[in-house]
């Protein structure tokens, strides 16, 4: 299938239709999961979404919402077959804690998620201010220059920058919409889209040169006040590097109607 991306840069390019293809006992990662550090390894956004999908599949709260997701990245995830599993750690009719794990080739987990889910109900929420970013229609299409392969993670979403840039250092805010499915044959849900996007917060707001330093995140945490909705989701991110080889990236997360939550990433920094 061919996708038409921002500014037509994918015209004529054959791209996978999904980040993962279902196979017996698991999922096969496609080239759209390739990360920026090594073409053999996945960007953490797609497996984060795959784990959330698995966690929701075992939930005992049918009308629940996921309000906190805490990921530990225990090892690099290869581009290839992966397996995910999930279990309910703390069952409940109103509140539950779910754990999901991702493996590749053996039983050693490479990523782990714990997610708190709560029952949804209608209530009067706290008034939120309007989205402080120009909308996607007033934002600038852009493609990342630092991926080492033409078909990789940056082709899975359409990116439009309200401020900052993929290709220049400093804080950045961008809107995205999916250009593929998470799992072949299924529509990507807004929460899955949010997770595919949010792990890139430290990439769009990078303050170091990709060619001379690595600053991969060892975790990813999201706290949500409500489920995201709609086609376009936004991330407004800033990264700070400390003097001892570590950094943090914090981001506000939006849909078209307002802020849905915040994210945080811990970065391990060293020369390439």
Automatic annotation (TrEMBL):
<dbReference type="InterPro" id="IPR049450">
    <property type="entry name" value="ACOT8-like_C"/>
</dbReference>
<dbReference type="Pfam" id="PF13622">
    <property type="entry name" value="4HBT_3"/>
</dbReference>
<dbReference type="Pfam" id="PF20789">
    <property type="entry name" value="4HBT_3C"/>
</dbReference>
<dbReference type="InterPro" id="IPR042171">
    <property type="entry name" value="Acyl-CoA_hotdog"/>
</dbReference>
<feature type="domain" description="Acyl-CoA thioesterase-like N-terminal HotDog">
    <location>
        <begin position="35"/>
        <end position="117"/>
    </location>
</feature>
<dbReference type="InterPro" id="IPR029069">
    <property type="entry name" value="HotDog_dom_sf"/>
</dbReference>
<protein>
    <submittedName>
        <fullName>Thioesterase-like superfamily protein</fullName>
    </submittedName>
</protein>
<feature type="region of interest" description="Disordered">
    <location>
        <begin position="120"/>
        <end position="140"/>
    </location>
</feature>
<dbReference type="InterPro" id="IPR049449">
    <property type="entry name" value="TesB_ACOT8-like_N"/>
</dbReference>
<feature type="domain" description="Acyl-CoA thioesterase-like C-terminal">
    <location>
        <begin position="136"/>
        <end position="269"/>
    </location>
</feature>
């Amino acid at each position: 299938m061919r996708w038409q991306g921002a500014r037509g840069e994918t015209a004529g390019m054959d791209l996978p239709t999904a980040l993962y293809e279902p196979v017996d006992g698991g999922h096969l990662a496609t080239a759209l999961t390739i990360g920026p550090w090594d073409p053999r390894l996945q960007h953490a956004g797609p497996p984060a979404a795959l784990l959330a999908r698995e966690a929701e599949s075992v939930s005992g709260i049918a009308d629940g919402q996921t309000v906190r997701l805490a990921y530990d990245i225990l090892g690099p995830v290869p581009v290839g077959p992966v397996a995910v599993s999930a279990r309910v750690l703390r069952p409940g009719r109103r509140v539950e804690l779910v754990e999901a794990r991702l493996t590749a080739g053996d039983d050693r987990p490479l990523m782990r998620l714990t997610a708190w889910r709560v029952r949804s109900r209608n209530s009067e929420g706290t008034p939120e201010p309007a989205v402080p970013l120009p909308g996607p229609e007033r934002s600038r299409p852009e493609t990342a220059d630092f991926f080492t392969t033409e078909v990789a993670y940056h082709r899975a979403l359409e990116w439009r920058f309200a401020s900052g840039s993929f290709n220049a250092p400093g804080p950045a805010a961008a809107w995205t919409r999916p250009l593929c499915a998470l799992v072949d044959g299924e529509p990507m849900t807004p929460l899955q889209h949010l997770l595919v996007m949010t792990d890139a917060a430290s990439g769009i707001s990078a303050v170091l040169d990709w060619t001379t330093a690595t600053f991969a995140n060892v975790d990813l945490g999201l706290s949500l006040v409500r489920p995201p909705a709609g086609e376009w989701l936004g991330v407004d991110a800033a990264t700070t590097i400390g003097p001892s080889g570590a950094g943090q990236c914090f981001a506000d997360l939006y849909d078209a109607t307002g802020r849905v939550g915040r994210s945080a990433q811990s970065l391990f920094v060293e020369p390439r």
